[in-house]
Specification:
Layout (H helix, E strand, L loop, with lengths): L2 H6 L6 E8 L2 E8 L8 E5 L10 H7 L4 E5 L17 H15 L4 E5 L3 H11 L4 E7 L10 H7 L8 H8 L2 H9 L11 H10 L4 H11 L1 H17 L3 E6 L7 H10 L4 E5 L5 H18 L9
Parallel strand pairs: 3-4, 3-5, 5-6, 6-7, 7-8
Antiparallel strand pairs: 1-2, 2-4
Helix pairs in contact: 2-12, 3-4, 7-8
């Protein structure tokens, strides 16, 4: 780790918690307040079943020197959507598009994790000129990155016998906790408030209906994998891949598959599960800092 990286990890950032209206959706987001007005921007796209709070410690760690912005999608966290909102990945991407427009963001890297990958790739295809780089953390874009359990899940339709019960089983406290603990080498490093806060939001009115709709729509992401891969080959964005190899949904082959389309990507594997930041933040945060410093137009952090 460089001297400058040690320095930036020393003091926590100040974080603002804000809301902005996007097409009738009251989007909650958290944003670091960096020391420099021209700090590089990293848009943090969270996963299921969490929200922007999953990035709290990363924002504290890096936010003094980079502008880290993390929205909650409709159906997640503190964001409030109209009762007639249609929960598909296209619509979530529409809201992220409008969110970046509302904040006036023009150049930024994407951090894509889990659900953040299908949302982020849709966004990148629509706005390729904005994307300065990708940080991929257990965010899948390849068939070989789907475990058998994930394949079974993505095949569900409303007409599949037992489908609703299978999805709702993931939305229980035990199901949410298992997403944090499965594949993790040392569960004592996991803070329980992560899954408890996720579960709090899942229990809000209408949230399980939203998750059912997104579960049935997940197959649209698998169908789009070739398009996302073509975008990667065409644009070859600077890419950092950090991956928990014990992920029960997205196993290690999904991480290595990116190297076919972005062969210059930096790949770092960790002996953990789905939520790799929970127990490997000390290893991952410096990698992100060094990556952001090396992006085109970024000045090295002093």
């Amino acid at each position: 780790m460089s001297v400058q990286t040690r320095s930036l990890l020393a003091l926590p950032a100040r974080t603002a918690h804000r809301r902005v209206r996007v097409d009738g959706v009251d989007v909650f987001y958290r944003e670091s307040l960096p020391d420099r007005a021209d700090a590089p921007v990293l848009l943090l796209l969270h996963g299921f079943p969490s929200a922007s709070h999953q990035f709290r410690r990363l924002i504290d760690t890096l936010g003094r020197h980079y502008r880290l912005i993390a929205p909650d999608y409709p159906g997640f966290g503190h964001t409030r959507a109209p009762e007639d909102f249609t929960y598909t990945f296209d619509r979530l991407a529409d809201v992220v598009d409008g969110f970046t427009d509302a904040l006036g963001l023009t150049q930024y890297a994407l951090y894509v994790f889990d659900f953040g990958a299908p949302i982020g790739f849709r966004h990148a295809l629509r706005h390729p000129d904005r994307i300065t780089g990708l940080v991929v953390q257990n965010g899948n874009a390849y068939e070989e990155g789907l475990s058998e359990a994930a394949r079974d899940f993505t095949a569900l339709t409303p007409d599949t016998p037992g489908a609703e019960e299978a999805v709702l089983g993931l939305l229980t406290l035990d199901g949410t906790r298992s997403q944090y603990e499965t594949g993790t080498a040392d569960p004592e490093l996991l803070a329980p408030e992560g899954w408890l806060l996720d579960q709090h939001f899942l229990e809000l009115p209408g949230r399980k209906r939203a998750q059912l709709a997104l579960a049935y729509d997940y197959k649209s992401n698998v169908a789009a994998y070739p398009t996302w891969q073509a975008w990667l080959r065409e644009h070859r964005p600077p890419t950092l891949i950090t991956w928990g190899t014990g992920d029960p949904f997205f196993p290690e082959p999904g991480a290595r598959a990116y190297l076919r389309d972005v062969p210059d990507a930096a790949l770092h594997l960790f002996p953990t599960g789905h939520f790799a930041l929970e127990d490997h933040l000390p290893e991952i945060a410096p990698l992100i800092a060094d990556f952001l410093d090396q992006l085109p137009g970024a000045e090295r952090v002093k």
